[in-house]
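FORM 7B: Structural annotation worksheet

SECTION A. Query
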Amino acid sequence: MSLYPFIRPFAFTLDAERAHRATIAALKLAPKRRPPDFPESLRTTIAGLDFPSPVGLAAGFDKNAEVPEHMLGLGFGFVEVGTITPQPQPGNPKPRMFRLAEDRAVINRLGFNNEGHAEAWLRLRHCIHSRGIIGVNIGANKDSTDRIADYVAGVQAMSGVAKYVTINISSPNTPGLRQLQDEGALRALLEAVSEARERHGPPVFLKVAPDLGEGEPDQIVRVAIEHGIDAIIVANTTVSRPVLKSRHAGEQGGLSGAPLKPLALTAMRDFREASGGKIALIGVGGIASIDDAWERIRAGASLVQLYTAMVYDGPGIARRIAEGLAARLKREGMSNIAELVGTAA
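SECTION B. Predicted structure
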């Protein structure tokens, strides 16, 4: 039985960011568990990596690579730490993270607050990578005069300690960052990243925003494939605002959670149509149930990630979704999750 329903009321008495830091601190004190043995039907291979479950932890939870092994032990099939920038930075002024409980959502304008490459590298160096797949999400410093150089530095720094590296150009909380999704800027960025990537370095993923214009998924897919990107993560938080009930609805920043689901699902369908299955896609945004994960995989995702749902349902949600997917595959007569990918495309 999960203890989270009893813990959540106490956690929610704290502001969102303080509760998050308390959670990380508690996890660091807890013993590391052995990751669960997932059914073989959930095993899938992307970019040469063997994922034991398609349900992973999105970047943003473990910004400084403090508890990746703990999260694997809680039932995530893979964990993405970060976003990590070359130099430490405090992020935007507080308060900068808000729960929208009535909407099962979160708005954040954290701004890549993290301790920098050096601290993350030291922690990741000591991880037991046999416990599971740990990826690193990298970004650019807010005051950087050369953001492409920041991403190159991230690829170089993390290649030895990450199973994969994600190029995050989709956060709305670093001014101008999303402009790197424009075709010319993206081409220059990915060319530099490809040159920096060691010949036998880890796979490189690209994380994009859900707030894209007509034709942009086609452009992004084309440039990503041309430069050997291994997967596209669809999508980050949104700056759009659907109808929300919470008093925090007017806060600036990226919206995640249940209200993001329709937009993220549409973005997944757009990227699947643009790619025709030629590049792996990873779905994130509003995934909080077995049905959500199933729908996103049918739309084209080979893997899914979640974070905000964990705020409301606890860390056991990843294992519950994974086990539910395995049971549903069996009922549908499918032997492996890969058979489901893109079947609704």
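SECTION C. Observations
The chain has one domain: 4-332. The mean pLDDT is 91.

SECTION D. Sign-off
Analyst initials: ____
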